[in-house]
Amino acid sequence: MALRDLTRSVAGGALSSGMARLNARHPWSHNDHFHRWILSNLPARRRKALDVGCGQGGLVAALAPLFDTVVGNDADPAMCDDTADRCADLANVTIAGGDWAHLDGPFDLVTMVAVLHHLDVDAALRDVRDLLAPGGRFLVVGLAPPRSVTDHLWDAASMVTNPLIGFAKHPRVSRVGPQPPSYPVQDPVMAYDDLRRRTEAVMPGARMRHRVGFRHTIAWTKPA
After folding, report:
1. How many CB atoms lie within 10 A of CB 4?
2. Where are the alpha helices (DSSP H) in 87-148?
3. Beta pairing partners, 49
4. What's the pLDDT tens digit per position in 110-148?
């Protein structure tokens, strides 16, 4: 990740540390930020939804009023417990650990937020395709290491806009300082262009877009 690596090397990492302190003054969740995008791209039929890698349950809770049934899944038992606690009063929410690919479908919606790069991408895409009902949607918020010129331009835009978005979302200065993430983290290794080719091979017509916040999105509707 060249630009981010460069900030770590300048003045012995002083630039990177300074940016981290600046961003920590106005913290925001890059993943939660895209929940609105997911909610604005839901399928017309909303019987059953699956959030793979549900984390602390924010998206599951947001989907619950909009679907008959919502299943939250996470490989981390602690994350499953967090989602179960958050959604304890939501009767239509089920939490399932373990292998999501063998859950009882079909689903009208499958979501993954900062999850796909943790998985075997080709197998995961095929499994989602099989789990979706005709007309169902697959919505992804993902990460990829920058490789192309376009990737690096979006990376630079994310660096510049990160503190601005933070100020807009969290104008009051936080005194806590940089905090470690509250969920398991894994650096992505598959480049954006490679992921796009693999996605299109399994899900023809999928729409993939760069986004600020060091993220990209994928949207695909299974043919009826």
Report:
1. 15
2. 121-131
3. 70, 109
4. 999 999 999 999 999 999 999 999 999 999 999 999 999
